[in-house]
Every structure is written in structure tokens, then in C-alpha cells.
Amino acid sequence: MCDKRLCSCRQKSAASNVDPEILRKLEEGYKLLKNSDSPSLLKKYLTRDVFDKLKKRKTSYGSTLLHVIQSGVENLDSGIGIYAPDPEAYTVFAELFDPIIEDYHGGFGPDDIHPLPDWGKPADMGNLDPSGNYVISTRVRTGRSLAGYPFNPSMSETHYYEIENKVTDAFGKLEDDLKGQYYPLVGMEKDVQKKLIDDHFLFKEGDRFLQSAEACKYWPTGRGIYLNQSKTFLVWCNEEDHLRIISMQEGGDLGEVYARLVRAVTALERNLKFSRNERIGYLNFCPTNLGSAVRASVHVKLPKLSANLGRFEEIAGMYNLQVHRNRNTPELCVRLNMLPVLRT
Ligand code: ARG
Fold first, then answer.
1. Is the CB of 73 within 6 Å of ligand 1?
2. Higher pLDDT, 331 or 181
3. How far apart are CA 263 and CA 249, in angstroms?
4. The pTM is what?
5. Domain 122-338 belongs to what architecture?
6. CB of 286 closer than 6 angstroms to any ligand 1 atom
7. So where are the chain's domains?
8. Is any atom of ligand 1 closer than 6 Å to the C-beta of 81?
9. Are 322 and 104 in contact, with CB atoms under 8 Å apart?
10. CATH-assigned architecture of domain 4-104
């Protein structure tokens, strides 16, 4: 039977529908990118051949190659440079997504299959720093999208409202320590917003990569944050992804932080259907957030390693970790980030 999303006759029949103005912008963007010294994976893998194959394709949500590449074209300093405007984009534009996914996710090839969801045993994670001398805080987050909806650039204002309504209904069913309150951005007092941002709970507006990707349309409609009472569990609604589910607390008890995330995602999943592809796992807006889309980080004080940041970054890289220098604190603190990876 013909799989509607993948069928090439469907892609061809949509071919003539790509607006000439979009084709013009695509050609212009392609030239700009190719004449630049952009370090992005987009520049590396968007060959003329791939470009010509994809430039007239459209998904059933109406997304084009321009939606995919516009952020990387406008921000030549991007590391990746592409976003998926909807779940189908990963297959309709596979000739571009696959090599970028393979490069970023440690060799995950086009025939590899991410395993079925398995949270493992959170209790086995334990405490990373029982002495309490090094780890200031621990955070584990994941991204989830609601099945049946496109992602930011192809979302209508109604989609933003609908998603917000569905997730707030699901928040209302959370129990025990996950119970809390949803704060929509619409109508939020400026001082409340500032405090939530300063305390590192809320996202900011205006990320230039997201803006060029058309991910900030109708702002602040449909955006908001859910917080439990102790502020150890939060969910961002309609920022980069439909849902960013976050568990965090002071200290290094990764077991407790991760267990809370697992409980929360499992509870939300009882009332929401998440978008998942059997090959690349949970689907989100950015191809860096596929598979489990789980990213763990610690805010840590390591004065000796931090004294030579170059060397520290080299060592961290060997363990698939990213180092972010924290400039807001007087001590030498860094955030160590474990990257989400697709596994085979
Ligand atoms: N689009 C940006 C780049 O390519 C950010 C990618 C990763 N970060 C993210 N928030 N998805 O460099």
C-alpha cells in the first residue's frame, strides 16, 4: 500500500506548487551559503545535486526546502543550520536530513533504527557528588511534540492555541510532587516574567536562529511555562518544541532528577500522543533533538580543569560533553552538557 507521507508520486504532484518567489529565494540562499565560509553541516551537505532534487518538494503541511534551510542561510555561523518545519520533513527532505543526522549523531546511518523507548533504571544513576563539593545543580530535559501537528514555521495561530489547550489539560491531571500551575506568557506581568528568566526557569524571546527559522510567529500566543510547587519540574510550552519537559534541582542527585523526569513524561504520555518515527525516534523541530531527545547537564565547580578551558573542552569532547562557561557567577563554574544521541 502507498504510504502517503513517503510516496514519491505525491512529492512530484506537489512539485509544480512551489511558488516562484520561494524558488528565487532558495537559489539566492543557496548561492549565499556556498560563497560563505559557514562551518554549518547545512553548507557541508547541501550539494547542488541535493539542492536541485529537493527545491521543488513540499510536505502535505505545505512546508518547503526554504523552511528547512532559512535559519542556516541567515545565520552563517550556525553549527547545524536546518530545522524540520513538520514531522514529514524528515522523510520528504531525507537527502539533506540523513547525512546531517549521521554526522551529528555519531554515525547513525540511514538504515539504522533507534531502539524502542527504554528509560532504564533511574535508581541506578545515583548521586554524582555525595560530598556536595562540586556539583551545584543537575538538570535533565527532553523534547516532545504532539502527533498530528506541524512544527513552528508551519503552525497556524490556531495550532498554538490547540496545543496549549491539550497540554494544559494534561498538566491538570498530574499528581503529587508534579502538581503545579501553568503560567501563560500572554498577560504575564513583566516583573513575574523577569524573575522566572533570572531564576533560569523561563526561556527568553528572540533567539536569532529560531527567529530566522520562523519559529517565533504569533509570539506570545500559546507559549507558557508549567511549574510544580517546589520548582523541580517544569514544562515549556511552544518555545522551540511543542513541549520541553525539564527536571532539575540543586546538588548532584542525578537518580532523583532523572526518576522525576521519567515519571513526568510517563504521566503526560497517558493523556497526550507524542510524535515518533520508528527509525529516528521522537521527532522535534531541530535534528539535534531526536531519539530520546534527552539531554542531561550539571552545573559544576571544577577549578583545576577550568583553569585551562581549551584542554577541559578537549577532555569533555572525548565523553560527548559540551562545556558552557558560566559568566554570571564569581566562581569558575561550567555547565557540562551530555548531548542527546541516536543509538543503533
Ligand atoms: N540552529 C542552531 C545551529 O545550527 C542551533 C542548533 C542547536 N540548538 C538548538 N537549540 N536546537 O547552530
1. no
2. 181
3. 15
4. 0.91
5. 2-Layer Sandwich (3.30)
6. yes
7. 4-104, 122-338
8. yes
9. no
10. Orthogonal Bundle (1.10)
